[in-house]
Design brief:
Helix 1 runs antiparallel to helix 2, helix 2 packs antiparallel against helix 3 and helix 2 packs parallel to helix 4. This protein is mainly alpha-helical. The chain has four helices and no strands. It is elongated, with a radius of gyration of 16 Å. The chain starts with 6 loop residues before the first helix and ends with a helix. The chain has one domain.
């Protein structure tokens, strides 16, 4: 089993951890979060699920486009539901969590897009 498809998740997780640590070191108490790790676990789980969906073999380019659109919209929807649930569970700390969550979302999205572009290029070069 190759770890190459999961390298983007590992790199995104490392960058997210560093970002959260840097934000928590800032002197603004409104954005310090002790639950930032929940966001990272959430994004790792979603990214692993999306990798499983993306790595299923497809024969047609149209199916690949549908997969990419489905995974992107599915990720956005699941993230919105996750943030909504957290807002109901922990209202006093929601702002700090939302800041961390949005930054993690952006980091994982950048790495997801780079993974998808590399995946598409590798599929195009195969005979």
């Amino acid at each position: 089993m190759s770890l190459k498809p999961y390298s983007a998740i590992l790199i995104a997780s490392g960058v997210s951890i560093l970002l959260s640590a840097a934000i928590n070191m800032l002197p603004f108490s409104a954005i310090v979060s002790t639950t930032w790790w929940i966001s990272i676990l959430f994004h790792v789980a979603i990214s692993l699920l999306l990798n499983l969906i993306m790595l299923k073999k497809t024969e047609e380019a149209r199916d690949m486009i549908n997969k990419i659109m489905f995974t992107s919209m599915g990720r956005l929807l699941v993230c919105m539901v996750g943030v909504f649930i957290y807002s109901l569970v922990d209202k006093p700390h929601f702002f700090a969590f939302a800041i961390h969550f949005m930054l993690h979302y952006m980091v994982y999205t950048v790495f997801e897009i780079t993974f998808i572009v590399k995946f598409i290029r590798s599929q195009q070069t195969k005979p």
